[in-house]
Write a structure and sequence with these properties.
heterodimer; A: alpha/beta; Rossmann fold; five-stranded parallel β-sheet; two-stranded antiparallel ribbon; 39% helix; B: mainly alpha; Four Helix Bundle (Hemerythrin (Met), subunit A); 6 helices; 76% helix
Amino acid sequence: MAGEMAGNSTKKKISALVVDDDRLVRRIHGMLLTRFGMETNAVENGKEAVDLFASGKCYDLVFMDMEMPIMDGLKATQALREMGVSSTIVGVTSRTQEGETQAFMEAGLDACWEKPLTRDGIISLLDQVAKKLL
Amino acid sequence: MEVNQMQRSFLEYATVLFREGFLDGQFSQLQMLQDESNPDFVVEVVSLFFEDSQKLLNDLTTTLDQQNVDFKKIDAHIHQLKGSSSSIGAQRVKNACIAFRNFCDQQNLEGCMRCLQHVKQEYLLVKSKLEALLRLEQQIVAAGGAIPVLSEFS
């Protein structure tokens, strides 16, 4: 399965976190990542994502929505990077006008994509993540 | 009606919906996520889409009806509707939201009202077409057939 890696004795699944205030997006993106064999979790806003990492949880991949209540994607990404989180963080947004995503990238994203997530996009990411984990 | 005929009807209907722009490749991606362990995935997410969209359209109507229209609120609602319609593959609704957003940016109230009507229209159209498509799917499954894959549309 694409999202699994053979270790010495156990198979380690790539872990992914979907951060989005839209329940439809959480459901769809969550299913897409799960079908790729990833261990998937989903939260509703940036603060919940930061709290998860602060509690010691770690995810190889984070899909971060830009606009969310309580703590938006930009602030959450900044906070995670300040905490020393080196996970691959991909911004996912419906905002596609020029300049709208620049600040988001500068907050510490590895990439910024237009919603919705696609199979091709995830395949290209898995390659990078696998290299990072090896 | 036998299963093969049902499957042909399903494919013919789906082809029309894609050709006329009601649905795009994202919908076929959703179909491909459905499997034996998640046999109701498409129905589930389409139902979520209907619920969320109806609420957003109601909120948009109320917000545009106010004495002092809060265009920031309108923008937030459209943004959400654009996001969910694009995640389900409801292309014409998504495009209607993009046009709506432009009038909202200009704070053009009349333009916004017209756009709201257009978004509502497109939503009702795609809703009835999705309901029809999913009914055809259910008939195929009930008759013991497999739902045809829509991969050529992705």
